[in-house]
């Protein structure tokens, strides 16, 4: 049986009460580079998103879960996106909102729980991640969890001044 609860965190479905948390994350311009966001989101749009978040992953082709500490504090989000049931693959993205919660092992635990869920429950053959070459912490996180760099997309992202390369990492279910 797959557990979405680890030693220090658990993953849970989004709730209407997550509106302010998601609003903060989606409108924090310092995080936009991670998600290719280019415009702010209104509370109205996020509320609509949360109302539709109950859609099954097979219908929505994505799944967003909250990362909570065992003390019930929401500290981040973890996503399955581009869910492709035919080819049994999906992308994974993770974000820990506050810097004080980064490098504490929460992301590593969340990633491990989600990858296990993808392989054991969704029966995926592979998962992948797209990570900027400048995001050393995320590269290390995913590589520690068994992801391998399989390619480099040159000049992939433009921040208004410079282009950045982006790695694609992949983990195949053995």
UniProtKB/TrEMBL annotation:
<keyword id="KW-0808">Transferase</keyword>
<feature type="domain" description="N-acetyltransferase">
    <location>
        <begin position="9"/>
        <end position="172"/>
    </location>
</feature>
<dbReference type="InterPro" id="IPR016181">
    <property type="entry name" value="Acyl_CoA_acyltransferase"/>
</dbReference>
<protein>
    <submittedName>
        <fullName>Diamine N-acetyltransferase</fullName>
    </submittedName>
</protein>
<dbReference type="GO" id="GO:0016747">
    <property type="term" value="F:acyltransferase activity, transferring groups other than amino-acyl groups"/>
</dbReference>
<dbReference type="InterPro" id="IPR000182">
    <property type="entry name" value="GNAT_dom"/>
</dbReference>
<dbReference type="Pfam" id="PF13302">
    <property type="entry name" value="Acetyltransf_3"/>
</dbReference>
């Amino acid at each position: 049986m797959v557990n979405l609860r680890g030693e220090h965190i658990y993953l849970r479905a989004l709730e209407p009460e997550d509106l302010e948390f998601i609003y903060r994350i989606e409108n924090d311009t310092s995080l936009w580079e991670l998600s290719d966001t280019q415009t702010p989101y209104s509370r109205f749009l996020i509320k609509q998103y949360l109302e539709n978040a109950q859609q099954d992953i097979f219908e929505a082709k994505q799944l967003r879960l909250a990362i909570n500490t065992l003390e019930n504090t929401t500290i981040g989000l973890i996503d399955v996106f581009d869910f492709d049931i035919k080819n049994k693959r999906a992308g994974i993205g993770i974000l820990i909102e506050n810097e004080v919660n980064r490098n504490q092992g929460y992301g590593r635990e969340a990633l491990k729980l989600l990858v296990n869920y993808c392989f054991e429950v969704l029966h995926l053959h592979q998962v992948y991640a797209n990570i900027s070459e400048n995001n050393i912490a995320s590269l290390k996180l995913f590589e520690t969890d068994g992801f391998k760099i399989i390619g480099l997309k040159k000049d992939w992202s433009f921040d208004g001044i410079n282009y950045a390369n982006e790695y694609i990492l992949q983990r195949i279910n053995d």
